Amino acid sequence: MAAKTVCVTGAGGFVASWLVKLLLSKGYNVHGTVRQPGSEKYEHLQKLEGASENLTLFKADLLNYDSILSAIAGCDAVFHVASPVPSTIVPNPQASLISYFFNVEVIEPAVKGTTNVLQACLEAKVQRVVYVSSVSAICVGPNMPKDKVIDESYWSDKDYCRKTQNWYCYSKTEAEEQALEFGKRTGLDVVSICPSLVLGPILQSTTVNASSLVLPKLLKGGDSFENKIRWIVDVRDLVDAILLVYEKHEAERRYICSAHTIKTRDLVEKLKSIYPSYKYPSNFTEVDDYLQFSSEKLERLGWKYRSLEETLIDSVESYREAGLLQLE
Ligand SMILES: NC(=O)c1ccc[n+]([C@@H]2O[C@H](COP(=O)([O-])OP(=O)(O)OC[C@H]3O[C@@H](n4cnc5c(N)ncnc54)[C@H](OP(=O)(O)O)[C@@H]3O)[C@@H](O)[C@H]2O)c1
């Protein structure tokens, strides 16, 4: 049987790079979309095993339909991973400017970009689309139950996201809702996966994605940190899950993908027991953010995940190598 051809959007990003690596290792022909072909930020992709024969990079922007269609044409499946992931919530001295920024830089590419990808998939007769959403599309809102396990039936409250200017969560919720709705309306087979905080080693060498800044911040210390709950999944387990929901015929609608739940103070204690010589935060303020997610639906498909210790060690070693742990 001929090898399948699949497309990964935003191929140079943290999650997408691991997905490209996995797909190449399984013998898929991969079309990867990037915005600036020739840039050194994609050099790691060309070095992946099998890339010279089976990886083709396409210049495509999510907001340019024709560029997306060229990358997707001839593909059996599309993994829509690309999305703007801002690293901080910008303070708001000039609301109109900030809203403009988030509309243009975050919401448009996430929402309109996803519709463009789906429309192109329909036109190119793609068999299945896996959309990478986030638990941000599931659990953000004032009325989340603390006494129940959160599963795929929950959605973030978009009005609340708008009011609190949580534009990233707003964009992921709106994009995922529209993606599943698009599938229902047109018959396109769309499955979404909602990961929590993604940690693990980085493959890219000249860019650092937002979630890979979380542990370095803890290791560098600082005065006071909120003792927030962290829901964590390893990037290698996430890409296994993404491939699983593509390959398992029976997969449908949404899948939460989260492996570990830990308070920040306990995470720091765990890191300290492995790496005692970093600085670490000295104080924590308590916050009431208890929620429990279930990845049971994904586990029923056969998903397995590694230990938190393995993820932490491999992350820290990778950050060391990339020079992310030097004190400023
Ligand atoms: N990391 C996490 O903790 C986490 C958690 C939950 C969900 N997710 C989701 O997982 C996905 C990947 O996240 P990541 O952490 O791997 O982020 P990342 O490293 O920042 O990658 C994001 C990618 O999106 C691409 N992109 C952004 N705007 C684009 C546009 N207008 N047109 C084309 N491509 C565009 C970027 O492409 P260029 O290379 O061209 O700049 C980049 O490759 C996102 O959908 C994110 O919402 C991530």
UniProtKB/TrEMBL annotation:
InterPro entries: Epimerase_deHydtase, NAD(P)-bd_dom_sf, NAD(P)_dehydrat-like. Pfam families: Epimerase. It comes from Vigna unguiculata (Cowpea). SUPFAM superfamilies: NAD(P)-binding Rossmann-fold domains (SSF51735). Keywords: NADP, Oxidoreductase. This is Cinnamoyl-CoA reductase. It comes from the Eukaryota. One of its GO terms (molecular function) is oxidoreductase activity, acting on the CH-OH group of donors, NAD or NADP as acceptor. Residues 6-252 form the NAD-dependent epimerase/dehydratase domain.
